[in-house]
Amino acid sequence: MKDFKDIIANAIYDEALGLSESEIRELIEIPSDEKMGDYAFPCFRLAKTMRKAPQMIASEIAERVSGNEVFAKVENVNAYVNFFIDRAFFADQVIKEVNSRGDAYGRSDIGEGRKVIVEYSSPNIAKPFHIGHIRSTVIGNAIYKLYDAVGFDVTRINHLGDYGTQFGKMIVAYRKWGSEEELAHDPIKTLLKYYTRFHQEAKADPSLEDEARETFVKLEAGEAAEVELWKKFRELSLAEFNRVYDMLDISFDSYAGESFYSDKMPRFIDELKEKGLLIKSEGAQIVDLEEYGMSPAMITKSDGSSLYVTRDIAAAVYRKEHYDFYKCIYVVASQQNLHFKQWKKVLELRGYEWQKDCIHVPFGLVSLSDGDDIKMMSTREGTVVFLEDVLNTAVEKTAEIMREKNTEGVDIDEVSKEVGIGAVIFQELSNNRIKDYVFSWDKVLNFDGETGPYVQYTHARASSVLRNASDEEISAVKAGGYDFGHLTSDSAYTLIKLIYRVPEVVIEAADKYEPSILTRHLIDIAQSFNKFYHDEHILVEDRDERLAKLALVLASRTVIANCLGLLGIKAPERM
Ligand code: ARG
Known about the structure:
By secondary structure, this protein is α/β, with parallel strands linked by helices.
């Protein structure tokens, strides 16, 4: 399909203007008021080169380009040339493109196969996979899908928190109070119980903390007994995480977590030393960042053990060497902003120019509303809302709602999973990611609001219209040859314009690491489709008109399904 800004730039271009076609294209605007046309070209910049009043230039251009079949009307208002696209021509171009590209509509190849890493989810093993983790998991997955859609070669990494002093605590607790059966029965909840008990008992007996520290040092030194227990915790935890990933239909290319870098740190620490960046401070080794207004980055503790930031530094270097990424994206909560600033600074001071391609994509907190049946959480106190429970609840509540509705012919067991889980994902991706938000069932599952169920319902509605057409009609819709002049009403035109913009919206969302840009656009499309559906009679007598309208319904359904797919949400045909 032709890009309409290109078409306009080409029509405007004239040697005498002294601007290239691409310079002209850059100047073209989309007026906020539709009365001023679909596109507008401001002539202020030309006034200098042409030594003429901009109004006069605008009127000359308007005169010269009117008559072009692409435009229904070209008008000059003050220094602007306003372009009104011919609606039938536009409908023809856009709908044919969508219906011929199908699943691929919205995708592009601007990434040129360059390597991008998206790191997301990254829960801590032996700890609950709780509602707080949902954001990184779901936002990260959408960012992966967006980058894949615009033509990058994406590797998904789950940087598991499978290392650190807490494993010293966990091992001590397990040895003191643990039982093998209990652990096998319900691993994470059991480990959580031991961990909670450790913190309670350590209040009275601080020597437990020392014991835990010593145990972690042994683990880091690779002592067999400690490593064996740690491995067991890791495997049991992963099995639980995978259950949740399966529900969300999310997978990873690598689970190289923090432990993976334990033998890759010494080299890096030596290099920092050689560069004179490491300073001894009370037995620990730090990089002083005072000059940059930050607290120091602690690289090794006084007992020689490594820290979170040390492992992140090693991970970045490893990834650069191993994947030679064009970009490495870290989808991690804004609570870790300082950590990522310190980490980047250390990489920069070490002389790694590529640190500029490492991008921390932060997001705000999710909290739970008071009245809800889920409460605030604290791992230490053992009050946690498990993500798995949230997803199961979403599915159950959805099934209840569906049973109350008239849902004949719908496989409620299957569809309530797609809708319930889709609703939770959609809610996560609805707001600007940096905003904190409050999770509430009423908002998540509202079938009429700006929600996942609403968009999915719109998709099912379009599917149902298409089911009411005969196979012969659907083939005729795909073959073309009818008059797009039937799709020039305001509601059809608004819908087609939104569909036309999908590929650029996908690019923008990827560029800004902001899936909500696509989510918002998708809500606009769904609302606009529903307006078209209510305003117009689709399955009319006149065959030509019916085919044209069905073509728009088919294109709408395709676009909604594609956009839901990019957000990691299913598009049921019936619900
Ligand atoms: N495991 C960490 C947590 O749960 C998140 C890891 C983020 N990624 C990283 N490269 N530091 O807080």
